Amino acid sequence: MNRFLLVLLACVGCLASRSVASAAERPDIVVFLSDDHTWRDSSVYGSDEIETPNMARVAAAGMTFDQAFVASPACAPSRAALLTGLYPANNGAEPNHSRPRADIKKLPAYLQQLGYEVVSFGKVGHYKQTTEYGFDLAQNFNYHEDTAVPNALKWLRERDDSRPLCLFVGTNWPHVPWPEQTGEFNANNVQVPSHHVDTPQTRAARAKYLAAVRIMDTELGQVFDLAREKLGNDTFFLHTSDHGAQWPFGKWNLYEEGIRTPLIVSWPGQVQPNTRSDAMVSWIDILPTLVDVAGGEPPSAIDGRSFLPVLSGEQNKHRDVILTMHSGDGDKNIFPIRSARTSDRWKYIRNLHPEFRFTSHVTEIAGRAGYWESWVEQALHSSQAKSKVQRYLQRPAEELYYLADDPYEQNNMISDPSQSERVAALRAAVDQWTAQTHDTLAYYNAPKPIVSDKTPNIVNVFIDDMGWSDVSCFGGDVVQTPNIDRLASEGIKFTQYYVNSPICSPSRVALTTGQYPQRHRISSYLANRQSNRKRGIANWLSPKAPVLARELNAAGYATGHFGKWHMGGQRDVGDAPLIDRYGFDRSLTNFEGLGPRVLPLKDAYDGSEPQPHDLGSANLGQGPIRWEDRSVVTAAFVGDAVSFIDQSQVLKKPFYINLWPDDVHSPFFPPEVLRDATGESKRELYYAVLKAMDEQLGVLFDRIRNDPDLKENTLIVFSSDNGPEPGAGSAKPLRGSKTYLYEGGIRSPLIVWGPGVLADDAAGTVNSTSVFSAIDLNRSLYSITGTPLPEKAVLDGEDLHETLLGNANESRTAPIFWRRPPDRPGTKQEPNSDLAMREGKWKFHLNYDGSGAELYDLNTDVSESNNVADANKDLVARFKKMLLAWNSELPKDAGDPAFKQTDSTSALPSTQFVNPIAEGADPWLVRDPNAERYLWCFSDGNRGIAIHTTDNITSLGEKHIVWRAPETGPYSREIWAPELHYLDDRWHIYFAGSDGKNENHLAYVLRSESNDPLGPYKLQGPFATGDGDDGRSPNLWAIDMTVLEHQGRRYAIWSGWDAPGTDQQYLYIAPMKSPTQLAGPRVRICDNDDYLWERVEPKPSERGLAEGPQVLKHGKRTFVIYSCGASWLPTYKLGQLELVGDDPLDPALWQKKDRPVFQATAETYGVGHSCFVQTIDGKQWWHVFHAKRDREPGWRRSVFVQPMRFRPNHSPMFGKPVAAGVPLDLPSGESSPKLKLPYKASLKNPAKLSDGSYYGHHQFISHDDAGVHLGVIPETPINAYRSGEKWMLGGELPADFEAAVTIDFRGDADARDAGLLFRTTAAAVGFDAQRGYFAGLIPRDNRVIFGRTDGENWREIARADLQIDPNVAHRFRVQVKGDRFEVFDNGKLVLTSRDAHYATGGIGLRVVNTHAVFSDLSIEPL
């Protein structure tokens, strides 16, 4: 046995040996843990790039360890080792996020037995696992809960306990995400480590990282100082970090930057100040050391040993070898490693599976690190960068470094013959250690294998709406397509290949999944939610579907999608999964998907401005967007695809690429030079686009063909997703086009190219016999690439890879089946069959009900012109049975008469309601302390203030104008965000007003002259909300004032500008002398741009904006919920501040939550300016907020209410914004009573409208001597919008009744609908936002109509012609009995109909884009 081996095995064998130290008294202990801090990045450890003055102060007061190590370079196992004193293999916490075994005694228990109070603030264990370690108190342990240190300081200041204390404080810094504000650290001046790739992105990230280190150092100093102040100078203070930073070769690695850690100990009187130790210590040694320091007996049954003798100066050595392990981190890092590091600075690393690719969060989460992509990009042009990138991703089986000469571990000496003896000793040491710790050497989760360089690359080119005979190699004679033709001449043409649907989305689903698209409820093109629901189809492809790209990615492929997606993320479906959820490393799509996208501009070259064509995609967010002329969008996709190929070669990975252009889908916009040659006809434009697309695709084809490595190892598959759009391309001689189940809709040209992959004699051949489809192509690619099939999924496709490669001429054995899109039944002249199938030479068509059988022999009748069904009845019977059986196994859609809509459109129970309940912005709702009612407060037309009195949270009730602005003056216009507060036995309405110029907005208050909230009021103000001690030097812009009452004092909080004219909104606070006067200068509570999400748009270049502060108190906690972002955009949201001390005027005591507490969903967006109210019975809390009506920039908004609750710790839980039309239970204490009949109301002044609720823009209703005006167009509309204004009478009607109302159209012969809603529930703001019936008159069309709405859509049931004179009043009457409805106009029966859909509900008045006057409403039971 050699000398190295004897020494190392002796070291490994004495893991349990220890040194005993005792203490006369038990000192207080404070441990400060940083998170992801590389030891090199501090001045204490030699950095001249960043000063860490507080680390230096602790070091000056104690001992700095130069060779301290963690047990594992990932958070959870590292911390578990510290808190158990055991190696990860011994405690069970090996991969990140795992936890040690519950039966193991943890550090707190050892110290508690010695009489200690053991407390934890912040990240001490791995986030929420902290509570499992047995601390007496554990708080603020959530991800980046950056209130941990302030709360620890507050707790320590207030602590009154005689027990000795062990306090752990875990900061989240410098763990990612690093701060956006870098302060003193300029990216141009940072020092990029030599083993990193120096790019601008690296420098920017490093500046942020250093700023995070600075925050950590500041917090360290705060804890160190208070520990000395509160606990005394004899406190034992230890600072260390759980491992290195999240940089390549750092965290998750066993290189020095991953496992070596700062460790500094201060203990006045026991540890000599300003000393350094070269003794090697491990984090497993901290537990026994703390027990030793506390005067206890360090446990002997653990792996750690106390290093107290080193601290006391008795010894200068501790360990001769440091043994570390890493087992992985979730699905981003699956790479087990073991290492031994000696005191004479040799490092041995064993990579247990060098056949795995080393990946991490740095490489796998695109854009998160912000710099890795730039490393790969630079590697395309720099051999040095390429070497660094490849070294990170691919590791040898073993590594050996001499750190004294090679501190960054760049020179692997494992093969150096002179080191063979040392290598043998180190191998044996690791072997013995893994055996001793019962290390299973396991890996967790599925690894990313390193794939053989013989594995073929795949490029899947899928054209949009191109006809079977459009390209010249398939007989096209309009334009030449030389680049596509060359593929065919060098590859194989297949003439009997099919797609699995004649329309975009389902065709793409089939190619993507290898399954019939109907299995995924996608049988037509995906559109907006309402359209999808009506057609019975999904909004997106489930990420759980079997996806070829995902399996290829798991097998080691680089996967990219470039082009049209159309499997989710289109129109208004902004919450669909991003494309990377389906297994793609990188994507660039168009307006039919989410993530990075290029959106088209349509330029007709006629001198007019190019027009965007994005179908709402630009409003969805969810990825960076760039705009390109539609004629070069394919070039953009090709450019990204070529770049992806380049990067894949650098990364030594085979690639799979979807290149799915959408050029030849309408609208057609060819380049100018080609457009000029057309006559502007649809067909000519189409072919000009096709020609341009061929030219742009040539760049991709040439990139592959001209690279010898790629040419010999790449397969290109070229096809179209369905037939041509009628009037554009050609499918001749095939019958039909896009959407049809005839051959022209579903047969696709297919070209397979791959000189080094195809059979030797395949080039230029034509396969005209093999019949198969896209699902078979999908399945075959698994075999061609050697990729395992997805687990727990059965593919419909068959393996025909030998046919695709030219080695066989096999066909699919099972029939191919089709179902038409539900919204494409065809025309009278050319009906579309519901179902179709192909078996052998036969093509069979059928309808759902078994009718319409058509049978064609495609060998002799490819045009499907000779139906031979009658002559082949046996075949028809067999095919009919097979086809109907196949269809019966799949989910139905709306094309099938047997389809039943799953969404409920029944009447809403009287115990429920839906949103939005009203139109308006900046809603304010408060309980009346002097009466059992609620009071709403709104701006009225920006020229006054209205208070609504109501018994219900869910309706506004009766409106009262309590104040009108004067015609001129400083508060005559733009009356914003009034709030009603009851203070000192008087009501106060705080609001902002101006003279019509926004920059002149100031805060005012109306004070009531009695305790009646309806007034009268006297105006006071403006408040002194500006600079200087008087607040008026100068007085400054202020809006959204609210009142905070705290510990017997009052404070005003508002949103204000920092200086005249800056338009920079911050939150300010000032003490109040009285409810109408401030008592001191303003104080800015916080910055408005600490986080990107607070900015007008989430970009570093955008300004922050904070407004709408609202006080929320619960238990003993005080919060301010504020609105941020841009109120005019869908991204408006809520942030949260908490007062963590006694003085609200101290900005340091306001702690901001690091993420929004309430933000947009796909359905409800632009949410903000909230208030919060308890129900009258005190049982519930409700959240009141406004949301935008549409995604366009602007201020058209409506009011939502939804329940909220509080956690046991009294922090608020807002949930997600409820969607419009979603039923919610009524607030506690509310009910919907039956309407008492008979009922009569003149609806004219002075009669009040307190019996009902209005749904519509507040300026579109008025009330005078003539009656109730609905649909009024105001002289000065404020953010106005039409919404089918309605006034609903409160209460439920009996099933049978007669109702009449007088309608005056005011002489408007162009008037639209006005009439009665009945049997109506679920009323909300919106044209068809109610469930019930409507009968009305339409003077414009001289028609009476009757129909029903389901909350979203109108369905007409009956109509009748009727001469309607708009100059006379119409007594309009409906009689309802069972399912029979009769409609009368001026006593004449004008319409009769039956319908049984709705049986109960209320009654109301409604107009559609019309101003009508209603009066004399009467209702009688029948």
UniProtKB/TrEMBL annotation:
Signal sequence residues: 1-23
One Pfam family, short name: 3keto-disac_hyd
Superkingdom classification of source: Bacteria
CDD domains for the chain: GH43_LbAraf43-like (cd18820), SGSH (cd16027)
3-keto-alpha-glucoside-1,2-lyase/3-keto-2-hydroxy-glucal hydratase domain ranges (all copies): 1292-1419
Residue span, Sulfatase N-terminal domain: 27-295, 456-783
Gene3D superfamilies documented for this protein: 3.30.1120.10, Alkaline Phosphatase, subunit A, Exo-inulinase, domain 1, Glycosyl hydrolase domain, family 43
Keywords, in A-Z order: Glycosidase, Hydrolase, Signal
SUPFAM superfamilies per the UniProt record, alphabetical: Alkaline phosphatase-like (SSF53649), Arabinanase/levansucrase/invertase (SSF75005)
InterPro entries per the UniProt record, alphabetical: AL/BT2_dom, Alkaline_phosphatase_core_sf, Glyco_hydro_43, Glyco_hydro_beta-prop_sf, Sulfatase, Sulfatase_N
Region described as Disordered: spans on this chain: 815-834
Family the UniProt entry places it in: Belongs to the glycosyl hydrolase 43 family.
Name of the featured protein: Non-reducing end alpha-L-arabinofuranosidase
